[in-house]
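So, read this over?
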Amino acid sequence: MEKPDEDEIYVVVVDAELAEPLFQTKMRLKVTPYLPPPVVNGWRQVDPILEPYLGPEPTVTLVGSLLLGFLIWQVLKVLSSLSSGRAIVDEDEDEVISSSLKQDFTATILLCGPPNSGKTRLFYHLCFGQTNVSTVTSLRANVEVSPTNKIRYMDYPGHASLQSHQFLNVLNDARGIVLVLDTTQPVASVADVLYQLLAHADKTNQVLDIFVACHKMDAPNAKNWRRIKIQLRAELERLLKVRSMEENNVWWTPGKPIDLENLPMAT
């Protein structure tokens, strides 16, 4: 019996049907039936081009890597905001407000608006001049006296009731109100806050100085102030029509166009 030559090369052929398919291949086979034919055809055309650089099933590998990277980025973004965010969450709200009364201040400015509209970011900018502060949703009011102008600023959380004892006390003493809104979001929640402020002013015979601050004006999908003003007026008129059926007295005649620049209870 002849011994095999040491230089002889043995080739082992493995049946492709017996080999375990790649994870990417399994995913492609599961996803392909749900994709439109043009996407599948484009997939087949791109795969041979990318395969020398990314290996087998390059399109699945590339898309999966992008999705994984996006998921990791979102998780890190949330963890970063939780670690660096600022909000008063461990103090009694009455203590927070009453402690500011011990400080010298010339006037009170109230920041209010829907949740996540940018109130706390504006609060830190006005009080401390910080323009890039990571914040989380405030659970209690933030109150601080600015060291530069001795004005007391109160950042009232958007989820809290505007009929609370603490809010109404500050509202009655406020020199001005800054209503903060996110220009990339619908104005319905902002209009509801404005409606409650105007209703309180009408009930207590107050005249409120209200300044509407438009946040995120540099965003691609931001609405300009003229469009926001039109939408606010339309939403207030809708609220008046609906709530006039539930309340005996409302602060404006339902059906009459609202002139936001000439309200008797606000300037």
About this structure: Strands lie at 107-112, 142-145, 151-155, 176-182, 210-215.
